[in-house]
Amino acid sequence: MSNTSLGQQIRRARKESGLTQSELAKGIVTSSMICQIENGKAFPSYTVLQSLSERLGRPIEFFVSDTDAHNRQRSTYSLAKALMAAASYEKAYALLKGIQTSGGTETDDLRLTLAECCQHLGKYDEAAAQLDEMLSAAINIGEKSRALSLTVRLGHVALAAGQHQLALYHWRKAQEMMPEATLDATERVRLWLAMGSTYYKLGFVSEAIPLFEQAYAEKDAELSFEEMGRLFLSLSLSHRENGDTSQAIECAEQAFAIFKSVRNADLSLEVKRSLAALAAEQGRHEEATALLIECRNAYSRTYDAHGLGLTMVETARSLHLQGRSEEAIAEVQSAITMLAADELEQAKAHLLLSNMRRERGEIPEAVHHCNIALQAYRKHGQSEHLMEALDLSVQLYDQWETYRAKKFGRSITA
Question: Model-level pTM?
Answer without folding.
Answer: 0.57
